[in-house]
UniProtKB/TrEMBL annotation:
It is an enzyme of class 3 (hydrolase). It comes from Photobacterium piscicola. Residues 213-247 form a coiled coil. It catalyses: Hydrolysis of proteins in presence of ATP. Its EC number is 3.4.21.53. This is endopeptidase La. SUPFAM superfamilies: P-loop containing nucleoside triphosphate hydrolases, Ribosomal protein S5 domain 2-like. InterPro entries: AAA_32, Lon-like_helical, Lon_proteolytic, Lon_Prtase, LonB_AAA-LID, P-loop_NTPase, Ribosomal_Su5_D2-typ_SF, Ribsml_uS5_D2-typ_fold_subgr. It holds the Pfam family LonB_AAA-LID. Residues 567-762 form the Lon proteolytic domain.
Length: 791
């Protein structure tokens, strides 16, 4: 009984949209989907990981680009606020460590209070800058300082007067300079002795003067020591006076802050340290020389005014919002932060105020999402990330110090406690590499979110997909799609999935098609997207990327590529293959020929010998050789050597989808029976001759159909495919129409013998006793010819 060809309803599955109500006429009447359709498995994985707070439950999201991995995670996190009952959020600030400026301290403040604390400190500094000069520039301060100074001057003057009077009574004049130098001179009445007058004195008088001067010198040195002690006492009293005034000023200005932040432990301790440091550095606020102020700002000494600034590293602007960071360029500095350097008059300096946050700082308490390949491409990023996750601390270390041997001076800021979930997006190959080569990967990324490429197609999923289309329309402010346009897009999705019973989950492809369809509709001044606009957008897409297809098809027009689609030929069959570029694939028929010569039964694969055949193709040839041997060589070796090749194949050939075509060509060469050239075949087979499914079946059929159009159509033209590929059929409308009209035929087979019967028009034959086939069958004819050669 001849094999019945496929009917047109098997070639394309129309989207009936039974899941939508009859009242739904367009996407305007659909509720947009707020989640990614068909990714329940991955969503459950994300939900599980986010609910586990222990270390190591980070996520690796597996899937090809365009599946909406990031969109799904973002929508889930925005919809389910995972921070509701977990760790609280904080603001993080760096401030000066007054004991060691190289090790800045970190302050942990309640979320949202970092900037207000910074402003409070700035206001405090402004008040102190104004208050200190006022406190030290008033009559009360001057009178108290003058009193201390007068007391010192009075004591000094009284003591010096007493010494001067005592010296005058003994005939000695005492003079003391402001530099502390003194001079004792013997007097001759009211005038100092000259050298001559002193020399005229008797030796006893001269000795008396010398002894008196020596005694006065001893007494004067004692007085000088007293004066120094009195000056030191005066300086201490003056400093004590300044400190008392400073304490009054600082205490008055800072008491409100201390009261405001008394419950914040870190801030309370910092204010106490700052209070003490200000008292030690009052002159910072009394500096009047602008040049000195500028130098102070550019220096790293303790008198730097910026030492009291607050560097708000992370500020939670919305205290209720879960921090979600997406790092597009995961370099070491962008993730872990860095310390800037500043230059002033040729001097390079840095301090805590130049510390800058990284994405890990901003995501602390939330989620950081990154592309796995980009993380692995950047030097030191992966090691730094693992180190931070293991320690659960964020150390801001200089990358330059990490990678060099020099002891460059840099800051060592206090580490920040880290509580973050890392989500890496990547493909399966990267995932396997990390699992194989990094033993720490499994411990740090314990949850795998595996994203599906497609989903089952049924009434419910079509309804969800329609709502997904509506969400894209709403989000991008597009024209609404009518019911037929929705159906056509769903059918396009099935075509992308290469399966009538599945829908593609590559949301990027659907979004791109909708954008281009919206452009087509608006260009035609339409008020709604219709199926004709979808068709036009798909044609535009194909036109942009089909240059290679047009070039290949032109070779059939000109006759450059030899192909017969009308007659019969021995040992010659039309096989189907797929040619793929980075963004497009199409089918094109190829001629396979087989020739035989007396030999030892080998099948000589010319492609393999010429190193143009891939491993899978070679395996297919070996399998068909085994099948032929099992049919025709059970009792004796096949006395023929077969040469098999793809004609006009100048590039590599791989895949086993031509193995059934090759068997047909070889059986034709063995039997001498011609094969129909108006039929093409695709499909692989096993050692028992059973047809196995192949890929790209739609493109292969369409490619042969187009070539038939070029060479001239006849009613008998058609294609043979494996029966297991029927569910993959989502053919073009013109092919479906041609099949419906009887102008093109598609057969679905489950064994290679059925293909031989279609090609030759003769029965293959059923094996009888002792392994013989009836003489009037294809296999019987082959058997008789081989037996005659054996004799």
């Amino acid at each position: 009984m001849p094999l019945a060809p496929l009917t047109s309803d098997k070639l394309y599955r129309v989207a009936a949209l039974n899941g939508l109500s009859d009242a739904c006429k367009s996407t305007k009447h659909l509720t947009p989907l707020d989640e990614i359709v068909g990714q329940e498995r991955a969503q459950h994985a994300v939900e599980f990981a986010m609910s586990i707070k222990e270390k190591g439950y980070n996520i690796y999201a597996i899937g090809r680009n365009g599946l909406g991995k990031r969109t799904m995670v973002m929508r889930y996190l925005n919809r389910h606020e995972p921070n509701g009952n977990s760790h609280a959020l904080y603001d993080w600030c760096y401030v000066s460590n007054f004991g060691d400026t190289r090790c800045p301290k970190v302050l942990k403040l309640p979320a949202g209070e970092g900037c207000s604390f910074k402003k409070d400190i700035e206001n405090l500094m402004k008040r102190l800058v104004k208050a200190f000069p006022l406190a030290f520039d008033n009559e009360l301060y001057y009178s108290r300082a003058e009193k201390l100074k007068s007391e010192l001057a009075s004591k000094q003057e009284t003591t010096l007067k007493s010494l001067t009077k005592s010296a005058e009574e003994r005939g000695i004049s005492v003079s003391i300079t402001t530099q502390g130098d003194y001079q004792l001179v013997a007097m001759n009445g009211k005038e100092p002795h000259s050298e001559d007058s002193f020399a005229a004195l008797s030796a006893d008088d001269q000795q008396t003067f010398e002894n008196t001067i020596n005694d006065l010198e001893v007494e004067l040195r004692g007085i000088v020591r007293k004066l120094t002690e009195w000056e030191e006492q005066y300086s201490d009293k003056q400093q004590k006076l300044d400190e008392n005034i400073a304490q009054e000023v600082v205490g008055h200005c800072i008491k409100d802050l201390q009261l405001k932040y008394k419950k914040v432990v870190d801030v309370k301790a910092y204010l106490a340290d700052m209070y003490a440091d200000i008292l030690d550095n009052i002159d910072i606020f009394l500096e009047e020389n602008e040049e000195q102020v500028a130098l102070a700002y550019a220096s790293l000494d303790k008198k730097m005014p910026r030492r009291y600034q607050v560097n708000v590293l992370v500020h939670q602007s919305d205290t209720r919002k879960f921090p979600i960071e997406v790092e597009e360029s995961p370099s070491y500095h962008s993730i872990f932060g860095y310390v800037e350097n500043a230059t002033y008059k040729g001097t390079v300096f840095t301090d805590f105020s130049l510390i800058r946050a990284g994405s890990l700082h901003r995501a602390n308490g939330g989620v950081l999402m990154m592309d796995a390949v980009k993380v692995l491409e950047r030097p030191y990023v992966w090691d730094g990330l693992k180190r931070a996750l293991r320690a659960q601390k964020l150390n801001l270390s200089s990358l330059e110090r990490e990678v060099t041997l020099s002891g460059t001076i840099s800051l060592e800021p206090e580490a920040i406690p880290l509580n973050v979930k890392i989500i890496l997006f990547g493909d399966y190959q990267t995932y396997q590499l990390l699992q194989h080569y990094d033993p720490e990967f499994k411990e740090l990324f314990r949850v795998t979110a595996d994203f599906e490429d497609d989903m089952p197609r049924n009434d419910t999923s079509e309804e969800h997909y329609a709502r997904f289309i509506a969400s894209i329309v709403h989000d991008n402010d597009m024209l609404h799609c009518d019911r037929k346009a929705i159906a056509r897009i769903i059918e396009y999705s099935s075509r992308q999935a290469d399966d009538q019973n599945k829908l593609s989950l590559h949301s990027a492809d659907i979004a791109n098609l909708l954008r281009e369809t919206n452009y087509v509709a608006r260009a035609s001044n339409a008020t709604m997207i219709r199926s004709s606009h979808v068709e036009q957008a798909m044609l535009n897409q194909e036109l942009r990327v089909s240059r290679l297809k047009d070039h290949v098809m032109q070779s059939f027009v000109t006759g450059t590529t030899l192909l017969d689609v009308h007659s019969h030929a021995v040992g010659q069959v039309n096989a189907l293959s797929v040619i793929a570029t980075s963004d497009y694939q199409f089918g094109a028929p190829s001629r396979i020929t087989a020739t035989t010569a007396y030999g030892s039964g080998e099948v000589f694969d010319i492609e393999r010998s010429a190193e143009l055949g891939g491993n899978i193709h070679s395996k297919g040839v070996m399998i068909l050789s085994a099948y032929l041997a099992s049919v025709f060589g059970k009792t004796a070796k096949i006395p023929l050597t077969t040469h098999l090749t793809f004609e006009q194949s100048y590039g590599g050939v791989d895949g086993d989808s031509a193995s059934m075509a090759e068997v047909c060509a070889i059986v034709s060469a063995f039997s001498g029976l011609p094969l129909r050239q108006d039929i093409a075949i695709t499909g692989s087979m096993n050692q028992f001759g059973e047809a196995q499914p192949i890929g790209g079946v739609n493109q292969k059929i369409e490619g042969f159909f187009d070539v038939c159009g070029i060479k001239g159509r006849t009613p008998g033209q058609g294609v043979i495919i494996p029966e297991s590929n029927v569910h993959n059929l989502m053919l073009r409308k013109d092919i479906v129409d041609a099949v419906e009209k009887g102008e093109f035929t598609i057969w679905a087979i489950n064994h290679v013998s059925q293909a031989i019967e279609i090609f030759t028009g003769n029965a293959v034959g059923v094996e009888a006793e002792h392994g013989f086939y009836p003489s009037n069958t294809v296999f019987g004819l082959v058997q008789s010819k081989l037996n005659s050669l054996r004799r």
